[in-house]
Specification:
By secondary structure, the protein is an alpha/beta fold. The chain is 42% helix and 16% strand. A 7-stranded mixed beta sheet has the order 2-8-7-6-5-3-4, sandwiched between helices. A 4-stranded antiparallel beta sheet has the order 9-10-13-12. Strands 1-11 form a two-stranded parallel sheet.
Length: 463
């Protein structure tokens, strides 16, 4: 067997003396560069063992390749992205961006120690939910609240605390899949509660719930199907009727409203999303919703409701496993403080601000950006086009939002290749491909990010 010329591979020290890697050592951590060179050479030797007559680059070319490989390897997978997809609550892109006030609050409590679980007045230990409990009670009308890592966690904890070993009655048409292939029946199973489906996929009446109640019933659950819509021959039980039944039979009613609106979204042209305040006012015992969707805050699950039931939830052993950290609480508290003045919330919370932007403003920006992008050699044309956006994140799937996009036609290569190149740019830009054009939807792009779009596109022109 012919031996492989491993001796022709430069040594680590020899490569480190090359100008490209010397420059990298000056800019980056030396240990990172040295380990990168060693790993690259190990990979090269393995490839030589399996590939016949593999050419070995000269030392200068090899050094350049190693620099490029280390740069790619060291590029964080989690980094800022300009969301030009038109999906405001894009789960893959982190859902709702945080308000400036929330970012500052995270910085303030993370930089040093913080009063997470201590009462500064008494010096005694306190509960971390105190950071947001007063605000949540003020804004929703609840008697008490709890915050956990996400709304699936909120569902798991509430069912475990209120109905473990008992039946939970829920409409068959509300057994949703909540994303990532996680389904409500599976979450319920993990809580220890026993699922009792009633009704049919398209119709569930109050009598279905009445007839299902036994001495084994632990709770009545109503789930708002945020991520799908059943139309046509349908009927569902109103939360008011379910609350009346629960009170009559002394059974707690849990209302999972999903996306968690604290403002009426009809003012933004979208309807049908329940309000936490309204559900609690009507008398729901426990209300569950997300913090990083329509609320526009950090990822978390919020549980609000009656004191008697909230005490059981807050003291359940799962509470410690699902609790949130100081950064989440700081961001949530700052976001909730903005809601005390609805006008300020619409101005300061990015999601609400983007929703409230008039189409004419988007059109003016699209026209300006199109003129600038059309001058770049990477594109044959750049034109403003009217289109539609969606909230996303499992919210209001059938409601469309008017928007204006910049439609790009690449001068060379495919549209998908151009889209991939923009995602790999710095800053990264995530658009959407439609009708053999790359659309940059300005409904999800803040005006302050317009320059970033130009910067990323300019990199394509130079490549």
């Amino acid at each position: 067997m012919k031996s492989k010329p491993f001796r022709n591979i430069p040594s680590v020290n020899e490569l480190l003396e090359s100008p490209p890697l010397q420059n990298m050592v000056e800019r980056a951590n030396r240990n990172v560069v040295v380990n990168g060179v060693r790993t690259f050479l190990d990979n090269l030797r393995q490839e030589m063992q399996t590939t016949a007559d593999l050419p070995i680059p000269n030392p200068a070319e090899l050094a350049e390749r190693i620099v490029h490989w280390i740069q790619e390897d060291e590029t964080p997978s989690l980094r800022p992205v300009v969301n030009a997809t038109g999906i405001l609550l894009h789960t893959g892109l982190g859902r709702a961006p945080l308000a400036t006030e929330a970012l500052q609050a995270v910085h303030d409590v993370s930089r040093d120690y913080a009063s997470l679980e201590v009462d500064l007045a008494t010096g005694q230990r306190s509960q971390r939910v105190t950071a947001v409990d007063k605000l949540l009670k003020q804004l929703t009308g609840a008697e008490a609240s709890v915050v956990v890592n996400n709304n699936a966690g909120a569902t798991l904890l509430a069912l475990a605390a209120l109905a473990a070993g008992k039946e939970v009655i829920v409409a068959r048409g509300e057994l949703v899949e909540i994303g990532g292939s996680f389904r409500l029946p599976e979450v319920m199973e993990q809580s220890g509660a026993v699922l009792h489906e009633v009704g049919s996929t398209n119709k569930t009446r109050i009598t279905d719930y009445q007839n299902a109640i036994t001495e084994h019933t632990g709770a009545l659950l109503k789930v708002h199907p945020s991520n799908y819509v059943v139309t046509g021959f349908t009927e569902e039980t109103h939360i008011n009727d379910l609350i009346a039944l629960g009170r009559k039979r002394h059974i707690p009613v849990i209302h999972d409203i999903g996306s968690g609106a604290l403002l009426d979204f009809a003012q933004f042209g979208v309807e049908g999303e329940p309000l936490a305040t309204e559900s609690l006012r009507q008398g729901a015992d426990v209300v569950l919703f997300s913090g990083d969707k329509l609320l526009g805050g950090p990822q978390c699950g919020i549980i609000c409701g009656s004191q008697i039931w909230m005490n059981r939830i807050a003291t359940h052993p799962l509470m410690r496993a699902l609790r949130v950290d100081k950064m989440t609480l700081a961001a949530l508290a700052a976001t909730l403080r903005l809601y005390r003045d609805p006008k300020e919330a619409i101005h300061a919370i990015p999601l609400l601000r983007l929703l409230n932007t008039p189409v004419e403003n988007l059109r003016q920006r699209a026209e300006k950006l199109s003129t600038q992008l059309a001058t770049l050699p990477a594109f044959t044309t750049a034109t403003p086009v009217d289109d539609i956006s969606f909230l996303g994140g499992g919210s209001l799937p059938n409601q469309q939002l008017a928007t204006v996009c910049v439609a790009l036609v690449p001068a060379s290569g495919s549209v998908n290749q151009t889209a991939a190149a923009l995602r790999a740019a710095d800053p990264a830009v995530f658009g959407r491909v439609h009708n053999n054009q790359l659309l940059l939807d300005l409904r999800t792009v803040s005006p302050s990010e317009d320059q970033k779009l130009l910067e990323a596109a300019s990199q394509l022109a130079l490549s």
